[in-house]
From TrEMBL:
GO terms for molecular function: oxidoreductase activity. Its cofactor is Zn(2+). This is L-threonine 3-dehydrogenase. InterPro entries: ADH-like_C (IPR013149), ADH-like_N (IPR013154), GroES-like_sf (IPR011032), NAD(P)-bd_dom_sf (IPR036291), Zn_alcohol_dh (IPR050129). SUPFAM superfamilies: GroES-like, NAD(P)-binding Rossmann-fold domains. It comes from Microcella alkaliphila. Keywords: Oxidoreductase.
């Protein structure tokens, strides 16, 4: 590789984001260098930039934890399943392996974990160094000829898969997805891929309800339309087997707990802003109906690998999940576009996008 410098977006403090030209990262023994082909803007990135997420954030940081790229260099031997030139999606958590969570197989909630994008330099850059510990742990997941932007969607889809796995969505006849933003739309697609027959999305925004139907929702309702009579009609009088709370607001959860079937299962998927995370739960309803309420945080490596296979085989359709592409010089515009919530995902294509303007569709 002859390139010696690269562009990257560095967050020096909240709202202090700068595009810099710096040397390509040097590799230490066991490290791998990726040429970034697609890096998606996530709600977490917005919260870090805006300063509403500060826990574990290191400054300066290079954001971007949903990404895919090409292996262009390594310092030492690659694992047997990898070769130079492979396209890989990157599982973004590096776990300690010895804390109480890790020894229980819950490395995604490792108390000592390091995350690409705000502790380890992330993918809003032309190149990313993947440290040896992540390489050996299997964080680089080959994706074959899956388009790079679709491969980058594996990470948020795997987070959705973790949440739905915890409520056994694959056995459900019905699901209510509250919040039809970008991640809510992923939940709709995933639920349909897992065989949930009736998937209903709830969102106050008409355009998001329209997208939800395109994504596979049986119905998409305004919150005012979710009445006991409507729910009974949609679920044969039983109520929803499962519910995903895909927006961090108390009013996205409290009114719908009474819409669950006996034995209903709830995934609190979204994080709630600090200070607004108090939710009133009808304890007797939970008690007598044996309602299960479970949170989910990120995903396990096995979830990531499972979703990568589902994407490769077409079990989950990846087309249309990334609705805009921008070069790294337009990251600020991409962040503002993401705040508006129109796109499902925006890809920052540091090494493959045109020099100017936003494009629609997929990279290859």
């Amino acid at each position: 590789m002859t390139t010696t410098t690269m562009k990257r977006a560095v967050l020096n403090a909240p709202r202090d984001l700068r595009i810099e030209t710096v040397p390509v990262p040097a590799l230490e023994p066991g490290d791998v260098l990726l040429r970034v082909q697609a890096a998606l803007i996530c709600g977490t990135d917005l919260r870090i930039v805006d300063g509403t997420k500060t826990k574990n954030v290191v400054y300066p940081s290079v954001l971007g934890h949903e990404f895919a790229g090409e292996i262009v260099a390594c310092e030492g031997r690659l694992p047997d399943e990898l070769e130079l030139g492979d396209r890989v999606a990157v599982y973004p958590l590096v776990q300690c392996g010895h804390c109480a969570s890790c020894v229980r197989g819950l490395g995604n909630i490792c108390r000592n974990r390091q995350a690409f994008g705000y502790q380890i330099d992330g993918a809003f850059a032309e190149y990313v160094r993947v440290p040896a510990v992540a390489v050996q742990a299997g964080n680089l997941v080959p994706v074959g000829d899956t388009p790079a932007d679709i491969a980058a969607v594996i990470e948020p889809l795997a987070c959705a898969y973790n949440g739905q796995r915890l409520i056994n969505a694959a056995s459900a006849r019905s699901m209510l997805v509250v919040g039809a933003g970008p991640l809510g739309q992923l939940h709709v697609r995933l639920a349909r891929a897992l065989g949930v027959a009736t998937v209903v999305a709830v969102d106050p925004a008409p355009h998001r309800r329209e997208i939800a139907v395109v994504s596979g929702a049986s119905s998409a309702l305004d919150p005012s339309e979710v009445t006991a009579e409507v729910v009974a009609e949609l679920t044969d009088g039983v109520g929803f087997d499962t519910m995903v709370v895909a927006v961090g607001r108390a009013d996205a959860m409290e009114p719908y707990l009474q819409m669950l079937a006996p034995g209903g299962r709830v995934n609190i998927f979204a994080g709630f802003p600090t200070g607004t995370d108090q939710v009133t739960i009808p304890a007797n309803s939970v008690h007598y109906n044996e309602t299960l309420i479970v949170g989910s945080s990120s995903c396990q490596l096995s979830d990531f690998q499972k979703v990568a296979e589902m994407i490769r085989t077409g079990t989950i359709p990846g087309e249309g999940l990334v609705t805009a592409h921008l070069p790294i010089d337009q990251l600020e515009q991409g962040l503002e576009r993401a705040r508006q919530g129109v796109d499902l995902r925006i890809s920052i294509d540091a090494t493959t996008a045109p020099a100017t303007g936003a494009t629609e569709g997929e990279t290859t």
